[in-house]
Write a structure and sequence with these properties.
It is built from ten helices and seven strands. With 266 residues, the protein is an alpha+beta fold. The relative contact order is 0.12. This is PpiC domain-containing protein.
């Protein structure tokens, strides 16, 4: 029932490509290192190929890696410069794939430029931190649960608890959740780490009390035992600074996309 947070895939890609841009940026002109069927392969192309394949730059690989990757790139050029390739690249499917790849690279370059020029002030970071602390739940909870597939199973377990059966033993015997082996123990958690229905049910209980009605989530039906609670300790700014900066970047990029959408030219 834990929530998982993901950055949007495009944001992850653009952050990576900013680093890639700076790692690949060079003042000198590209130098041709091989010619395959009259098509030049320069060191800039090889550098990008190496970065894509093994996340290193041309200056930070072994001779064996250099030789192997260069040979792979030569093979790629050999195949793509055959007469047959010229015919194939004009087929509708391949043309569409090439178009999408080109658009993707251009879009990523534009996104790179957006993040490269984005300025995040210390005031923005501190304001975002203050808002996050304001929205942080005041209590943390220690709880256990028994997870079953149906409401009827859950009601039967609650009946057993009402008759005096031990929560931990029932969790080991009946629960289908990953915490079953530990007697259903979830240890300490903040409400925002759990799905809302589960957190709401925990907050309504008193310490030492188990739920008299089961709670349904996307994982199944839960019988919850709230064992303890304590005041939450907010994280320091420095411990979550990077997360805050990424959130600001994400929101800025989303606003940028929305502005572009509002001015879309059909």
């Amino acid at each position: 029932m834990y929530k998982t947070f993901f950055l949007p895939k495009m944001l992850k890609n653009t952050i990576f490509l900013i680093m890639l841009f700076f790692s690949l940026f060079r003042i000198t002109e590209a130098e041709v290192i091989r010619t395959v069927n009259n098509v030049a392969i320069d060191d800039e192309i090889l550098n990008i190929y190496i970065q894509t394949r093994i996340q290193k730059t041309i200056d930070n690989i072994t001779e064996e890696e250099y030789s192997s990757l260069l040979n792979d790139l030569i093979d790629l050029y050999l195949l793509s410069t055959q007469d047959e390739a010229e015919k194939l690249k004009n087929t509708p499917q391949l043309k569409a794939q090439i178009e999408l790849q080109n658009r993707g690279l251009i879009a990523q370059a534009v996104a790179n430029n957006f993040f490269k020029n984005l300025k995040i002030s210390e005031e923005e970071i501190r304001d975002a931190y203050s808002l996050q602390i304001l929205n942080t739940p005041k209590l943390e909870y220690k709880a256990s649960h028994i997870l079953v597939e149906t409401e009827q199973e859950a009601l039967e377990i609650i009946d057993q608890l009402n008759k005096g059966d031990t929560f931990e033993i029932l969790a080991i015997d009946k629960s289908i959740g990953p915490s079953a082996a530990n007697g259903g123990n979830l240890d300490w958690f903040s409400p925002n780490q759990m799905v809302k229905a589960f957190s709401d049910a925990v907050e309504k209980l008193k310490n030492g009390e188990y739920s008299k009605l089961p709670t349904q989530t996307q994982f199944g039906w839960h019988i919850i035992l709230r064992e303890d609670s304590k005041p939450s300790i907010p994280p320091t700014l420095e411990s979550i600074r990077q997360q805050i900066e990424q959130n600001i970047m994400q929101k800025s990029f989303q606003r940028y996309i929305q502005a572009l959408r509002s001015n879309i030219n059909n």
